Amino acid sequence: MANLEERQKLKHKFRNQLIKAVDLFNAAVSTGEGDWVVKGFIDIAKNIYTISVDTKVISKIMELLLFPKICQFAQENGYKMVLCKEQNFYPDISFIDNKDNKFAVDLKSTYRKNGKEVNGMTLGAFTGYFRDRKSKKNITFPYNEYVGHFVLGVIYSRTDKNIDERKIYKIDDLQNITSVIKGFI
Predict the structure, then answer these.
(1) For residue 76, how many C-alpha atoms fall within 13 Å in the half-sphere facing its CB?
(2) Span 23-29, mean pLDDT?
(3) Which residue in 52, 132, 122 sits closest to 88, CA to CA?
(4) Full-prediction pTM beyond 0.85?
(5) Residues 56-77: what's their mean pLDDT?
(6) Residue 113, pLDDT above cutoff 70
(7) In what order do the strands lie in the sheet with 168-170?
(8) I want to staple 143 with a disulfide (CB 3.0 to 4.6 A). Which of 17, 107, 129, 130 is the partner?
């Protein structure tokens, strides 16, 4: 394990690499106009069903969109990725460099309530591994083995247009389907 000064340098390097990749991540979820790239779910008959603004649905789709870009980030920066084995484990992704230094990245998303406030993000249970830094309960690796802990947070706005979740679209209508979220940071 690296000493404190080395850990700080490694943490800073990883943070900078992550920040540099933000444009790559943004392009995976947002059009040039700032709308969400996802318009709905499609079935084998090529019907498109609009998505609700349910935060759990949006969050899961966001993860699916970001995952290939996160894999690209890992590959370009020489990290091995370890995904959490359970839904309620921390972190979502562990990155490990060639000297076995570990970096925790949790994916979080939330929506703006207004121009100054967001709905909030759950950042952990603050029990178990937060208190016992050597614990292996609900965590991929013990908390104290990570050089740094990061949140890849996505903040978005809900569309102000009415979305009719009962309407079924066809592929030819794709450009006319309103994105349910927009304005990503």
Answers:
(1) 12
(2) 91
(3) 122
(4) yes
(5) 94
(6) yes
(7) 41-42, 47-49, 168-170
(8) 129
CA angle 97, 102, 107 (to 5 degrees): 110
Write out the chain in H/E/C secondary structure. Answer: CCCHHHHHHHHHHHHHHHHHCHHHHHHHHECCCCEECCCCEECCCCEEECCCCCHHHHHHHHHHHHHHHHHHHHHHHCCEEEECCCCCCECCEEEECCCCCEEEEEEEEEEECCCCCECCCCCCCCCHHHCCCCCCCCECCCHHHEEEEEEEEEEEEECCCCCCCCCEEEHHHHHHCCCCEECCC
What percent of the chain clears pLDDT 70, i.e. is strictly above it? 94
Number of residues that this document lists for the chain: 185
Give the residue among 178, 150, 149, 144 at the shortest CA–CA distance from 164.
178
> The tokens 């016992």 sit on which residue?
132
